[in-house]
């Protein structure tokens, strides 16, 4: 008799499953929520709303998204203004042409010449367009010359050359010297209006390209006003000169001495840090290592300085500015994109940011002054 084979019951290994796929749902919700935030930011058309959102959030990624949304919103507004302006100019030109145009006469003549063997042919087309106003006081003449030259070679290929030139002239019949004076005055007024519009457009463009109107920009403006007051700047040059002389005579530090003292302070606090050599407020800060060294000196646990490299400029700026804002409550007066785009940053911007960082350290008691 053969022994019976007893089959062992198979034990099913049940892998633990999350109830109702909780983890996957949460991941999808996080992705959907971040995507929804980007879409919501792109739909906001009020810059003040984005400004308030930037003041309320403390997350670095959210601040970056809000700043990008503000840049895109400003660009859309500038494009819309340019488009509306072009439309208004086009409508004004059309109305002016419609009001001036009364009778239009157009004459076209064509002359063709062919070589004896038939291999080359030239064509000249002349078009004259005469526009006369309805009252007969203005006349405009436009002449357009089009020429084409075609030559066929022995192998069947052809060479085609075409040129086009146009010139126009206009005249106005004036009955007296007063009409000519009115024309000259209107031409001068139109030129003045054009120059004024160009100046306003340039001013508006410079204003649109400035930093956003947030609490950060307000703080920066306050710091610049403070620097001007400390430097003794005044609308009156004589008063400014008097103030500077009085300050030097009484031993009060002026703007240059404050700038040098702040530079010496930065040099002392970053002494011994690798890749840092502070000689000025511009090129010495271009790779972000000086910012990181200065912040790391006061907050060594904020990040690992040894892992930073001068080549990764964007990362250095992001680490320094975010760490200073998180640990010292120093607002990000400098934009990372602007710092990366510029080979050498503007020394006034760097100087203003370092002064703000110094002021925040004094408020936290990490730096002591003579008054404290």
Task: Outline the secondary-structure elements.
Layout (H helix, E strand, L loop, with lengths): L21 H22 L3 H10 L3 H41 L2 E12 L5 E13 L5 E15 L5 E15 L4 H32 L6 H16 L6 H14 L4 H15 L19 H10 L14 H16 L7 H6 L5 H17 L9
CATH architecture of one domain: Orthogonal Bundle
Specify the helix fraction band.
Answer: 40-55%
Largest sheet data: 4 strands, antiparallel
Helix count, DSSP H or I runs of 4 or more residues? 11
Beta-strand fraction estimate: 5-15%
Q: State the order of secondary-structure elements, H for helix, E for strand.
A: HHHEEEEHHHHHHHH
Query: What do we call the CATH homologous superfamily of one domain?
Result: Calponin-like domain
Low-confidence stretches: 11-16, 25-33, 233-251
Shape: elongated
Q: Mean pLDDT across all residues, rounded?
A: 75
Which class of secondary structure composition applies to the elements?
alpha+beta
Rg over CA atoms, rounded to whole Å, is 36 Å
Pfam families: CH, Smoothelin
Family: Belongs to the smoothelin family.
Keywords: Coiled coil, Phosphoprotein
InterPro entries: CH_dom, CH_dom_sf, F-actin_Monoox_Mical, SMTN
Structure description:
- This protein is an alpha+beta fold.
- The chain has 11 helices and 4 strands.
- It has a 4-stranded antiparallel β-sheet with strand order 1-2-3-4, with no helix packed on it.
- Helix 8 runs parallel beside helix 9.
- It is elongated and about 95 Å long.
- Residues 72-91, 194-206 have a biased composition (Basic and acidic residues).
- Pfam families: CH, Smoothelin.
- Residues 104-115, 158-176 have a biased composition (Low complexity).
- Keywords: Coiled coil, Phosphoprotein.
